[in-house]
């Protein structure tokens, strides 16, 4: 039995972070299944897994077959073997599409088997995640069947990946460092608040690093430590040792939600400020776990982080960051309760395998 995970790296490391996490979790849950991970940027993959050789078209890492999406001739040959056995189940992640060589096998060659494409969509708290979960779509061939599978924050979605080490909420390290992993912006108000609170600061690699370091220099911060690229397990362990998280992207958002650590999320900036809709949707999911006044403060702070800098009052923003950092103990219970609730929705990997078996996709 085979499952193939498709990953097209678009922005930084969130795409490969989620796909790699899902692939190895499925391998852990179903060790008898061959899991293949087809990646468009092995260079990006190698930065979060130092076992990966970006020069190779094929390699095995942690029991997972890893293919270079771009080596069309090699992949066409391997994935055509045994009546396209590796294409029995395709997990198409984040609307990434399929490589041209795979399209040729699916729609130009004659396969006797049925191919099942499961669309693993972007993580969102918006209502459409509930509505689209397990919804079928049409393809050009009756032998190629497609269905949506939505990660999410409710029991009507597939949930989040709860892999090894994330089964329970750990005790909060109240004196732990602040982790900065956000997009490029004017971060001077945040840097000033962090400098004043005296908490150690860890700065992750990514396109927001330099703008934050510039802000640290401008306010004279001496405590910021720039992290090297970390393997995913090392990154997870580092996150869970922190006292507060400033994160963006999808994989880091999911980890922050599951951690129970007080955090702020910066959504990917979109046209017409649509990122605010996504932030408000997640805030609505979190609201039941906070006291009303505490939630109102968290909401205002998150919106400050996600609105255009031109619309932000920097002094108020700095003061809000300072208040958040000085009051983490007051907010921690709400974040922790939200993290515990998410585990009740189940593990996305286990929910996915239950769906696959229930529908006779793998027997």
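-> sequence recovered:
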């Amino acid at each position: 039995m085979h499952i193939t995970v498709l990953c097209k790296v678009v922005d930084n490391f969130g795409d490969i972070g989620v796909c790699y996490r899902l692939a190895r979790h499925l391998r852990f849950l179903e060790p008898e299944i061959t899991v293949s991970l087809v990646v468009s940027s092995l260079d990006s993959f190698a930065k979060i897994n130092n076992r990966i050789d970006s020069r190779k078209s094929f390699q095995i890492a942690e029991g997972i077959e890893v293919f270079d999406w771009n080596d069309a001739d090699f992949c066409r040959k391997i994935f055509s073997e045994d009546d396209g056995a590796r294409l029995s189940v395709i997990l198409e992640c984040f609307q990434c599409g399929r490589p041209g060589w795979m399209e040729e096998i699916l729609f130009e060659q004659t396969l006797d088997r049925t191919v099942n494409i499961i669309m693993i969509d972007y993580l969102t708290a918006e209502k459409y995640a509930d509505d689209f979960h397990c919804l079928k779509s049409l393809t050009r061939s009756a032998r190629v069947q497609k269905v949506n599978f939505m990660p999410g924050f409710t029991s009507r979605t597939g949930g989040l990946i709860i892999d090894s080490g994330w089964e329970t909420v750990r005790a909060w390290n109240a004196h732990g460092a602040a982790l900065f992993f956000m997009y490029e912006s004017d971060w001077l108000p945040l840097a000033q608040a962090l400098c004043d609170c005296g908490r150690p600061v860890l700065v992750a690699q990514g396109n927001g690093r330099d703008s934050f370091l510039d802000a640290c220099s401008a306010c004279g911060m001496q405590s910021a430590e720039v992290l090297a690229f970390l393997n995913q397990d090392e990154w997870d362990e580092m996150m869970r040792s922190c006292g507060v998280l400033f994160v963006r992207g999808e994989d880091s958002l999911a980890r922050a939600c599951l951690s129970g650590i007080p955090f702020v999320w910066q959504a990917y900036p979109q046209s017409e400020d649509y990122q605010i809709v996504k932030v408000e949707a997640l805030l609505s999911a979190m609201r039941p776990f906070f006291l009303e006044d505490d939630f109102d403060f968290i909401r205002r702070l998150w919106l400050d982080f996600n609105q255009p800098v031109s619309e932000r009052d920097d002094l108020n923003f700095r003061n809000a960051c300072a208040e958040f950092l000085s009051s983490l103990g007051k907010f921690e219970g709400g974040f922790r309760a939200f993290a515990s609730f998410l585990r009740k929705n189940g593990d996305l990997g286990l929910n996915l395998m239950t769906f696959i078996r229930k529908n006779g996709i793998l027997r």
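The radius of gyration is 21 Å.
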